[in-house]
Design goal:
The complex is a heterodimer of chains A (about 300) and B (about 270).
Chain A: H1 9-16, E1 22-25, H2 34-42, E2 48-51, H3 56-64, E3 68-73, H4 85-91, E4 104-107, H5 110-122, E5 127-129, H6 137-140, E6 145-148, E7 155-159, E8 166-174, E9 180-181, H7 189-195, E10 198-206, H8 209-213, E11 219-221, E12 228-231, H9 249-260, H10 262-274, H11 279-286, H12 288-292
Parallel strand pairs in A: 1-2, 1-8, 2-3, 3-4, 8-10, 10-12
Antiparallel strand pairs in A: 5-7, 6-7, 8-9, 9-11
Chain B: H1 16-27, E1 33-36, H2 40-50, E2 57-60, E3 64-65, E4 87-88, H3 91-100, E5 106-109, E6 113-114, E7 120-121, E8 124-125, E9 133-134, H4 141-147, E10 150-154, H5 178-188, E11 195-199, E12 203-207, E13 213-218, H6 224-229, E14 236-243, H7 249-259
The chains are: A alpha/beta (about 300), B alpha/beta (about 270).
Amino acid sequence: MSTSKVASMHDAVADLVRNGDTVAIEGFTHLIGFSAGHEIIRQRKRDLVLARMTPDLIYDQMIAAGVARKLIFSWLGNPGVGGLNGIRRRIEPASLAPGQVPLEIEEYSHFGMVSRYTAGAAGLPFMPLRSYFETDLPKANPLIRPIRSPFSDETIYAVPPLNPDVTIIHAQRADANGNTQVWGLLGCQKEAAFAADRVIVVVEELVDEAVIRADPNRTIVPGLIVDAVVVDPYGAHPSYVQGAYDRDNRFYLDWDPISRDEAVLQQWLRDWVYDLPDRAAYVEKLGAERIASLKPGSAPSGSVEYGDYR
Amino acid sequence: MTDAVVAPAPAPAFSRSEMMIVAAARELAGQRVCFVGVGLPNIAVNLAKRTVAPELELVYEAGVFGAQPARLPLSIGDPTIVTGATAVVSMFELFAFYLQRGLIDVGFLGAAQIDRFGNLNSTVIGPYDAPKTRLPGSGGACEIAINAKNVFVIMRQSARSFVKEIDFRTSPGNLGGAEQAEAIRRAGGWNGRGPSVVVTDLGIWHFDETGEMRLDSLHPGATLDEVRSTIAWEPKISEHLEATPAPTGEELRLVREELDPGGVYTK
């Protein structure tokens, strides 16, 4: 019989995220762990190495809040809108504040990043991939290296494993032991979770173990590798959760002007992160009307027959 | 071919973005599996599926094969690409099994800079270590350029974008010319044959036997003077330069009423 790993977001982040850690909050446009990122800001963690394929608004906010010294990524933008202004100000020399240390960056392509997590999850020293030929990326990042196939004359590229100290993923549901189910875009959450030393799962809904066992094909992460389960409804806002709420595109558009001005951005962090205790307060501040506007229509899956074999 | 041959067109009843989308969609005739980008490529591909290429399979890098988006996706990972799709897979599977294995016929790319051989930069303007402008970076572009059988480029022409030398090579095109590029692709076992078309707001460019862009078709309302003033090298112009047929009423209706009713990408 398993013990409950259910914890508050405050306690999960306080116990499992340490200054200097490599932290991956994964979720590709879908299921982005905003509530976890905000708690890391609130607890004023420092010197983190943040890994994420698409830093998105959450890392723009976290980096502007000063939690990170380095960013590992493959696409740096506000998807469908434009740039990430907080991060750009820490990279472009002309935008750095006097005396400010630039953000260290380590850059891959999408396939390179998922391959890094896959190598990390599989316990391999590298992952080979057919990419990077004749590009400047291996010059920009010396960890992207050519290797000769042991079985032919081919030369391809390899990337090293990425093993985060902590991976945080957001999901539709999990049981108290951390058995986690996701549907919709899967991104690289499974790989990032298996690659990590510690895993925090944040869910929209805590369900009984029987719900998980009724549909085992949908489980992407077993409780075996999960350290804490946080129940945080709407914790992925302004990103989305398939079937539960839509991306709040208005916020993605609003973030552009907010983040263009450092003072406005810092005021936003005070209003929406530092001055709020948790996600429930954020949802209340957002308002019921805004939340209701994000609810999609219904499109249930068919069900399948697993069979009873006793 | 001189500028005088091209008659001044009447004020067009469509925008240049609409012409660019329609021209890109038409280029997809006969293609089967297309890796879709967000924005203009997304509208072009969805238009092609409703017109010249009804059998087209839409693949999104977020991990979807056979998408049937019911609305214009707001981002590359919009939930509408999932509902009703043929398959949802992990991103590793998408990049490894679908792209790297060679199942993708066309990959769409855009960029901040392109050179005459179709090499693309979406990483930085200025030096990498001290950039003047930090751009998004590769995303999947670098491996799409290498492993999609054909690459379609869609971007607006400007002298800042169509440059003699790109500041950073994010996605390889025809490198320093066709002969070199073909030898390297063969030796390296690339799935891709490199860029096959560049659709801009002014015309349609293909690549000649040397691997260099050549203007093959001029959009209605655009002039060769405009083409030359928005490109930093002396461009090759086809001896048989064609006039791109204007968008049909049905193409415009689909774009305006079904694909981009808010005019987000087409104004």
